[in-house]
Fold this sequence. Notes:
Layout: H1 3-20, H2 35-38, H3 45-55, E1 70-80, H4 86-97, E2 100-105, E3 111-118, H5 119-131, E4 138-144, E5 148-150, E6 158-160
Parallel strand pairs: 2-6
Antiparallel strand pairs: 1-3, 1-4, 1-5, 2-3
Helix pairs in contact: 1-3, 4-5
Amino acid sequence: MTTMAADRMFILISCAAIIVTGLVAESGWGAFCSTEAKEIVRPSLKDDCERAADSIGLSITQPKMTTANLLACDFEVFGIVQGVFFRKYTQKQASSLGVRGWCMNTADGTVKGQLEGEEKPFNEMKYWLQTKGSPSSRIDKTVFNVPKEITSYTFKDFSIRR
């Protein structure tokens, strides 16, 4: 094996080790996460990896960035949900879970609103709206529209509308 081929193989193996161990920075290329390693890795690492992979017939693709699934839906809660601090407890629960949106009383005696958040807390909030509510409330049923995926938050927090 020639020196140039050996260098390319070393670079390719180094790239594979970086990718496999998950030490690539947020951008997916260019630097390790640890302070010590930042001094070692050159900014052109991506190019070196691609050239080395090319020379032995491999293809390297940049890892996809994963983002949390944000979901949003409308809801309406039926039962004894007015005059029992239901909106206040809903706001408190949503805020503690990191769910955003709003709720309000309706003229029909229900509470309606919108939720948005990451999948797990979003589902926990939906469960809470179906089963818990405020201590003095009685939930007969809760209706949710089909959740939709959103790319960013619409609301900065969970509020009570009047």
